[in-house]
Amino acid sequence: MTQSTPYPYIRYSDSIEVQQPDEQEISQKIVDSMARVNRLMYEKYRHAIRDAHAKSHAILKGQLQVYENLPEHLAQGLFAEPKTYPIIVRFSTAQGAIVPDKMSAFRGMAIKIIGVEGEKLLPELSDAVTQDFLLVNYPVIPTGTINEYLKLQENLEKQADSGELFQQIAQKAAVGVQNVLAAVGLADDTNELSAPGPHLLGDTYFSMAALRFGDYVAKINVKPLSENVRELSGKKIDEDIIDADENAFLTKITADFFQSNIAEYEMSAQLCTDLNIMPVEDGSVQWPEDKSPYQPVAKLTFLPQQTFSPERRVYADDTLSFNPFHCLPAHRPLGNIMRVRKLAYETSSKYRHHMNALARVEPKSITELPD
Fold first, then answer.
1. Ramachandran area for residue 42 (φ above 0: left; ψ -120 to 50: alpha; else beta)
2. Which of 158, 187, 160, 162 is nearest to 175 (CA)?
3. Chain-centre distance of CA 270, in angstroms?
4. First-to-last C-alpha distance (Å) of the chain
5. Closest Cα to residue 98, out of 35, 30, 167, 154?
6. Total number of domains in the chain
7. Distance of alpha carbon 203 from alpha carbon 224, whole angstroms
8. How far apart are CA 46 and CA 49, in angstroms?
9. Long-range CB contacts (< 8 A, 24+ apart) of 116-119?
10. Helices (H), 98-245
11. Hey, is 24 helix, strand or coil?
């Protein structure tokens, strides 16, 4: 494979990241606000939930196969050698509240890869044999800097503490995301909370922010590969299915699909070629694919299975944590929006496990995932 861009790929160095003015203070304000909302949510549900992607729709067992004969710029970190890994994948809705599936929202795809040897970035998980990638079905972070993120977070907290509490916080987030989704054809533009978007198994999922890719800098995505999920791309969900249960139809359509289907997806990396047009410190900037296309590095395969048994849901929601900083140093997330997330993820995870009286577990084998 030869480089298909007019620019050389940018080599990773510590100087690529640039601390923002008042970054530490702003980051702490964000984390403190999220913690206060976490406590409100605990009082609502009498159970601690994630401060983002609180609602699961499916928990899948599968495998990730790193492709053979990758060129040097792609054979980096986890992808340096062709190998097949067991994986756990959690599909979710982005809000930090349990909201109806009918509500417009970003959807998430969290991947936990098992059998990844080597020291990990987070000291407390340095001996774990897992690696996480967290993806969303949108290519950028709309609030791409910590200043914008703080404004959003404080607004959400005000709504959560206003008296209408949780319904208003959910509506506020959903209306905001509706405009973004409508701009790319994933929802209507009515601003009414009734556009769930296309089938979540047909979506393409993105890291949104940049990450280290061994000697380089990249964003990653996962897109449908097999025909049966490719044909779901952009396909609207049947209104009869939505009307039958507007709170859980995403769980149903995913469970129905995997009763008898095998699904394949492809993971690809988009390497940075120009930091001016492909910045790491502003997550709201989409990297142009004409300057650097996504290039395949691995295949994800899922066999027929039960996707949402009570035991599997509890394991994924209450026992497991998914954290983009739980990774090999070769895949460390980059940029100020991700630096604040490092503290936010750990703070949320510790609170959730403490309040639910459950130890955090990093699996050593795929057999630990309940059927």
1. alpha
2. 187
3. 17
4. 40
5. 167
6. 1
7. 7
8. 9
9. 116/78, 116/85, 116/328, 118/328, 119/328, 119/329
10. 146-160, 166-183, 227-230, 239-244
11. helix
Identity at 153, one-letter amino acid code: Q
Nearest to 281 by CA among 210, 229, 351: 210
Alpha helices by DSSP H, listed for 105-216, are 146-160, 166-183
Phi, psi of 345 (to 5 degrees): -60, -45
Residues contacting residue 127 through CB under 8 Å, at least 6 positions apart: 119, 120
Q: Which residues contact 68 (CB under 8 A, 6 or more apart)?
A: 82
The CATH number of the domain holding residue 153 is 2.40.180.10
In angstroms, the CA 345 to CA 342 distance is 5
| pLDDT tens by residue, 105-158 | 889 999 999 999 999 999 888 899 999 999 999 898 877 777 777 777 777 667
Cα 185 from chain centroid? 20
Q: Is 57 helix (H, G, I), strand (E, B) or coil?
A: strand
pLDDT score for 175: 44
Rounded to whole angstroms, the Cα distance separating 79 from 260 reads 30
What does the buried/exposed string (b/e) look like for 35-55 if buried means 16 or more CB atoms within 10 Å of the residue's CB?
A: eebbebbbeeeeebbbbbbbb
With residue 34 as reference, give the H or E element that holds it: helix 23-45
**9 domain-assigned:** no
Determine the average pLDDT of the residues in 341-366.
72
Q: Which domain holds residue 89?
A: 14-368
Q: What pLDDT digit, counting tens, does each position of 82-105 carry?
A: 999 999 999 998 876 777 888 778
Q: What is the mean pLDDT of the chain?
A: 83
pTM for this predicted structure: 0.84
Whole-angstrom Cα distance, residue 136 to residue 251?
17
Residues pairing with 220 in the sheet:
269
Place of tokens 């198994």: 201
**Which of 137-151, 283-297, 349-363 tops mean pLDDT?**
283-297
Q: Is 144 a domain residue?
A: yes
Is residue 89 one of the residues assigned to a domain? yes
